[in-house]
Write a structure and sequence with these properties.
Elements lengths: L16 E4 L8 E4 L15 E3 H15 L3 E4 L2 E4 L2 H8 L4 H19 L25 H4 L1 H22 L16 E2 L1 H10 L5 H6 L3 E5 L5 E5 L8 H10 L1
Keywords: Membrane, Transmembrane, Transmembrane helix
Length: about 240
């Protein structure tokens, strides 16, 4: 049995039996007599099927296997599904019977009961399903490694901000309300805002937020749009 499903490998078939008449120990029964000792059967173990069970199976199978079929110009009618299966299995009747007897044997093996109350053990091995957890220790290093990298990045950012004397309000939009705009920028805006692609042209001018002598923060122009150094200078001025 594997996960509730019967799996097996048939080595051989031992189906030789003999009928033993009723005694004080048992009723009429069919005993399997050719099971080899190499199967490690228990001492004095007897593999039997009662005669009543065999008769019951015979009566049950007789009702299933008795029937008829009719071939009318290539159209075949069957009295039951069993008769159709037997008809289709005639070319390989031995294989069909092997499957049928194997299914009956499995039924006895899975649902049969031990009649011997003094010896209730089977030779063999048993398995039991259990939870299994496999830990990949390399992945256990991933969370602390991410934490260490994030802490390093945090302290590096704090150190760089202190070193460059970055204003505490940098990144906030509220101080923009208290900043002034240089008259040159207003002059450029008034002349280009109403022209075609004027805003695109105006956007190429370098602008920086600088602190004036009076202490006020002022947006002032840095370079002209035609200056090839404008992009680099804008970057450094914005960083300042």
């Amino acid at each position: 049995m594997n996960d509730g499903h019967l799996s097996q490998r048939i080595i051989s078939v031992w189906n030789e039996t003999q009928l033993e008449k009723k005694t004080n120990a048992h009723l009429d029964e069919h005993v399997f007599i050719n099971v080899p000792n190499e199967m490690n059967t228990l001492e004095h173990s007897r593999y039997t099927i009662s005669a009543r069970a065999v008769e019951t199976i015979r009566r049950f199978m007789d009702n299933l296997t008795n029937g008829w079929y009719q071939d009318n110009g290539g159209r075949v009618n069957f009295s039951s599904d069993w008769i159709e299966a037997i008809h289709d299995g005639l070319p390989a009747m031995s294989e069909w019977m092997d499957q049928l007897t194997l299914s009956l044997s499995n039924e006895f093996r899975r649902h049969g009961k031990l009649r011997d109350t003094f010896s209730t053990s089977y030779e063999g091995s048993a398995t039991k399903l259990a939870n299994f957890v496999k830990v990949k220790w390399l992945w256990m290093l991933y969370p602390p490694l991410c934490l260490i990298v994030s802490l390093y990045y945090l302290f590096a950012t704090i150190s760089a901000s202190v070193r460059d004397d970055v204003a505490i309000w940098k990144g906030d939009s509220m101080p923009m309300l208290f900043s002034c705009i240089h008259p040159d920028i207003l002059h450029l805006g008034s002349g280009m805002i109403d022209t075609h692609k004027g805003l695109d042209e105006l956007g190429r001018h370098g602008i920086a937020l600088a602190k004036s002598e009076s202490g006020a923060w002022v947006f002032e122009p840095t370079v002209e749009p035609d200056d090839h150094r404008g992009r680099l200078r804008r970057v450094f001025r914005w960083r300042d």
